Give the backbone structure.
Amino acid sequence: MTTSIGLAQDLKSGIIDRFRSLPMARSAVLAGRTLADLSRSLLSLAIMIGLGLLVGFHFHSDAGSIIAGMALVITFGYAFSWLYAAIGLATKGPRDRPGRRHPPLLHPDCSRATPSCPWRRCPAGCRASPRNQPLSVTIAAVRALLEGGPAAHWVWQSLAWSAGIFIVFFAISLHLYRNNTS
């Protein structure tokens, strides 16, 4: 969400207009913002893993699967930062609360991450959304990797979702950025 809020603030403050006067690619501002969020995500993940290990958490898998699971988390997070870049560019300013808007299909409250969402008890027609949405698929992939179970089925789906989200929202963000700064 920091991507969304940061871009909305940058547009409102006029710093984007200053960047336009520099000889640089238009996508550089967006890439810089999302890469900054990626570095924050890496640091946060390292702190969470470190604290978890300090309090007694241990993985039930080999080092390769652990690294693959963490890479999957980071890949998904980076793709999602482009979704929030598009939301931030589509808002009028930071007071619009750009970080609070979730497309219904991607909402974390309706995924396998939320124990309060009894998706297994939903009618068959409603079960498909929480079970197959990108966050649920990625959670299933990471769990399988970290617990040492069969993960290929979930991993390829998570990577496909991440690639799709990245491609679609990179294009949308670039389009919105060009229109907002033209």
